């Protein structure tokens, strides 16, 4: 196939492009070129904000893959490109109700008529608008993959890499975790997402599908990370209210415990149904494999924690405070 990846020089787009190359497809990446494109691809440098961005990628494409969040970028691509099939990495942030567990693709979306003023800030709304333009143009020749948490090697957000790294490098004698027996994770390995989307592209199969990982109790996820890292020390579980009082952030970012969501308004975010994707052929590798490879990648990064989590000093201060 002739495959065009809109992006391809960053994480998810790069994995999509590399998977297409590995399958023997002719792959072109269109991007501003802020990073290298995967080996075996052709990189066309272009800014999707500018007129004529798609002039060098004319002709018929068997498949186009896009990870955009800006509806203007998607509209420009839809209007300019001649494609037999269009695959789009959307997000479960597109749904209006992130609180209710075990919803599926029939759940209500954010207002599809509300154009986001800033797609960077209004991420879910931007994805809804992107979806709308793609589905209007391609119908059943479009695959909209509403992804949950994507992780694995290359995860610059630190959400999937922090825990195996922290268990491999405790700040002292113990590792601090949230006491969150009722919380879940649904980590989707980026390589499994890419393989599944290319499978669908090769068959010309479309649809709107929640692409999420298997629902896993958060304590089980953390224990898997601990086992992968070979940690044999103490694990200290801190009560959720206490962590919030100490200013520990949920989910991601600095001074956080990644993947932990105590907010009742977000309990549906990590407990989506996911059965439609499995029925459509999405296959998940074992969580241990994802976390082991994520750790190997994280070990190569120049600074830690990378993207999210507690610094050594922050973790030790919290452990000391909890022990008083």
Q: Give the radius of gyration.
A: 20 Å
CATH 2nd-level architecture of the largest domain: 3-Layer(aba) Sandwich
Assigned CATH superfamily of the largest domain: NAD(P)-binding Rossmann-like Domain
> What is the overall silhouette?
globular
What would you note in describing this structure?
With 324 residues, the chain is α/β, with parallel strands linked by helices. It has two domains: 2-150 and 189-211, NAD(P)-binding Rossmann-like Domain (Rossmann fold); 155-185 and 215-268 and 286-323, no CATH class. It contains ten helices and 17 strands. It has helices at residues 11-22, 71-80, 123-138, 162-168, 190-203, 218-229, 240-245, 275-279, 287-298, 312-323; strands spanning 2-6, 26-31, 42-45, 60-61, 63-66, 82-83, 86-91, 142-147, 150-151, 174-179, 184-185, 188-189, 207-211, 216-217, 234-239, 249-251, 256-258. Helix 2 runs parallel beside helix 3 (123-138) and helix 4 packs across helix 6 (218-229). The protein is globular. The termini are far apart. The relative contact order is 0.14. The model has no long low-confidence stretch (mean pLDDT 96).
List the helices and strands and how they pair.
Layout: E1 2-6, H1 11-22, E2 26-31, E3 42-45, E4 60-61, E5 63-66, H2 71-80, E6 82-83, E7 86-91, H3 123-138, E8 142-147, E9 150-151, H4 162-168, E10 174-179, E11 184-185, E12 188-189, H5 190-203, E13 207-211, E14 216-217, H6 218-229, E15 234-239, H7 240-245, E16 249-251, E17 256-258, H8 275-279, H9 287-298, H10 312-323
